[in-house]
Amino acid sequence: MKKYADLVDQTFDFPTREFKVKKDELHFHNVNLMEIIKKYGTPLKLTYLPKISENINYAHQIFKKAIKKNKYEGSYTYAYCTKSSHFQFVLEEVLASNSHIETSSAFDIPIVRSLHESGKLSKEHFIICNGFKRPLYLENVTKLLNEGFVNCIPILDNLNELDFYLENSRNEFQVGIRVAADEEPNFAFYTSRLGIRYNDILPYYSEKIKGSRAKLKMLHFFINTGIKDTAYYWSELSRFIYKYCELKKVCPELDAVDIGGGFPIKNSLVFEYDYEYMAEQIVENIQWICKKNHVPVPNIFTEFGSFTVGESGATIYSVLDQKLQNDKELWYMMDGSFITQIPDVWGTNDKFILLPVNHWKSNFHKVNLGGLTCDSLDYYDSEAHISEVFLPQYDENETLYFGFFNTGAYQESLGGYGGIQHCLIPAPKHIIVKKDKDGKLHDELFAPEQESEAMMQILGY
């Protein structure tokens, strides 16, 4: 039987930029994971902050290259979707990397204020306020407008939203309109529930926005699939840009399009996606349609959430025991839960890169991974590239550790970080790895494992 290292070598182009094995131990972005485990134990969440700035800088690079190549006369602006991860250390890294932000909730606005007070965010930063807005969200956005956040742009999601800003703002302000795009053909609904219908946009501008204190700055585009090289994506993007051109002819102050959905992140070691090609195609398509319609090209904004923060994250576990439940179904019982700690695995059947941290020279076999809750659905049995899971053989004399990688987006917010989880499984400890001014890596404990006293208080005991 071959060793686990042989399996990886013959299946993937390994090592990669992110992963290397040294002395039988896995390194993630040059972080020796066994050293982290020995220091902090498992289960644990890990955030490697430099990956955030690396991906932001890469997006700037490829869009600017596409703009230069096509002699595109508009600019490019990167915005981070805060809903992907609201943690302070994430937002500070984002803002330090020439990024702006997109919000989706009333409770994002106190975060904006805190970042402004700490000097991390200026009143000139773009704050793109998305989502269907309840009264508190409307009030909080209006306060930003009145306090001089000159690039705070509420994105109108319905026909009534503008009324509140006109009634309560004191000065001129910018707005955007979210277009209700058609969903993917196999989706449950034909048209997105969010945004304003294509046919309503021009009449709405003429009747409600034109001549008011609101200046239409931006048209917003979002589809759930993200930015993919499919006929569906290019068809919807083209339809959107044609609407921009139509609106631009009657609205001279309109000068920006915001492309949401975002780039995908690596969910397998065989992941293939040509980011540079996609950026170039977006720029080319926008320019061609605008030229055809004899209107100036717009400034391009993109909203990237998972792409910004996803590949910075890892979730590390240990194998507690193995159980052979019949002739062929072998289970590794781990010291955590998919339902509570990586809910994308359980709720939407997403896949992440799975690799052992140690025992790479051991023989491997097929296993199922079982979580700690009493729910039958708390398991993982297939990877993105194959409908199976292989890991090194269990050794009761030396603990086997393994990790799920690129888990940095959404997991804490979907799982209800710091709250009550299924079977009262605690939130794991969270470790941050950052670089100092000399480029040396340092790890620090951001949060210890959730304690029973915190849960008891929430439950009223």
CATH topology assignment of the largest domain? TIM Barrel
Count of individual beta strands: 22
Secondary-structure content class: alpha/beta
Termini distance? 54 Å
Percentage of residues in strands: 15-25%
Explain this structure.
The structure is a single chain. The protein is of the alpha/beta class and 461 residues long. It has 2 domains: 4-41 and 313-459, Lyase, Ornithine Decarboxylase, Chain A, domain 1, CATH 2.40.37.10; 51-304, TIM Barrel, CATH 3.20.20. Helix content is 32%, strand content 23%. The protein contains 15 helices and 22 strands. It has helices at 4-11, 33-40, 50-69, 88-95, 108-117, 135-146, 161-168, 198-209, 231-248, 275-293, 306-309, 338-341, 343-347, 411-415, 452-459, and strands spanning 19-22, 25-28, 31-32, 44-48, 76-81, 100-103, 127-129, 152-156, 173-178, 214-221, 256-259, 299-304, 313-324, 330-334, 353-356, 364-366, 368-370, 379-380, 390-392, 401-405, 429-435, 441-447. Strands 4, 13, 14, 15, 17, 18, 20, 21 and 22 form a 9-stranded mixed beta sheet that branches. Helix 3 packs across helix 10 (275-293) and helix 9 (231-248) packs parallel to helix 10 (275-293). The longest helix is centred in the N-terminal third of the chain and has 20 residues, at 50-69. It is globular and about 75 Å long. The mean pLDDT is 94.
Quick tags:
Lyase, Ornithine Decarboxylase, Chain A, domain 1; TIM Barrel; 8-stranded parallel barrel; 2 domains; 461 residues; 22 strands; alpha/beta
In brief:
This protein has 461 residues and is α/β, with parallel strands linked by helices.
